[in-house]
Design brief:
Blueprint (H helix, E strand, L loop, with lengths): L5 E6 L6 H12 L4 E6 L9 H9 L25 E4 L2 H4 L11 E4 L12 H23 L8 H11 L3
Parallel strand pairs: 1-2, 1-3, 3-4
Helix pairs in contact: 1-2, 1-4, 2-4
């Protein structure tokens, strides 16, 4: 088995909910094989507190999570990304920066749990549901035999996971 650690960037417009959930979950699930990051095209500057509460409940480390611009990851001095996934439809439709290293990209859309109206319990339930959907997709992703698939086969699998 390869000892390579794959860098994965999750993008969403505000980098406050879905991309944060994906970053926290993959860093927990990736077992050192994957290092996850997240960013936004127009970051809100704050992480949604329901995202943090959800990740805390799932035992994920939230200490380093912050809302940040995708420009941080287009710089030459950052670790090159192997995979970039958009997790919201608006980010998928935006013109992205040119990513160093030419990572594989796919769109994995999820409904925005922060758009849920209602009381605290309803909002937490929406975030928990979204986290469950993301975790399911991440389990499938992390089980792929990445080292054994050629570029086109891997890209096909990544897009299939996103329902494209």
């Amino acid at each position: 088995m390869s000892e390579k650690t794959y860098n994965v960037l999750f993008l969403c417009t505000h980098n406050s909910a879905r991309s944060i959930l994906a970053e926290g979950l993959l860093n927990q699930m990736g077992a050192g094989r994957f290092k996850a990051y997240s960013a936004g095209s127009f970051p809100s500057g704050r992480v949604n507190p329901y995202a943090l509460r959800t990740l805390d409940r799932l035992g994920c480390d939230t200490g380093s999570l912050r809302s940040k611009s995708w420009d941080e990851f287009a710089a030459v001095e950052v670790p090159p990304m192997d995979f970039i996934f958009t997790v919201c439809d608006s980010a998928a439709g935006e013109v992205c920066p040119v990513w160093p290293g030419h990572p594989m990209t796919a769109h994995w859309g999820f409904a925005d749990p922060s758009a849920t109206e209602g009381d605290d319990e309803a909002k937490l339930a929406a975030f928990a549901h979204t986290a469950q959907l993301i975790a399911t997709r991440l389990r499938l992703f992390t089980s792929l035999p990445i080292e054994k698939l050629d570029h086109q086969a891997l890209l096909t699998e990544l897009r299939r996971l996103g329902g494209q």
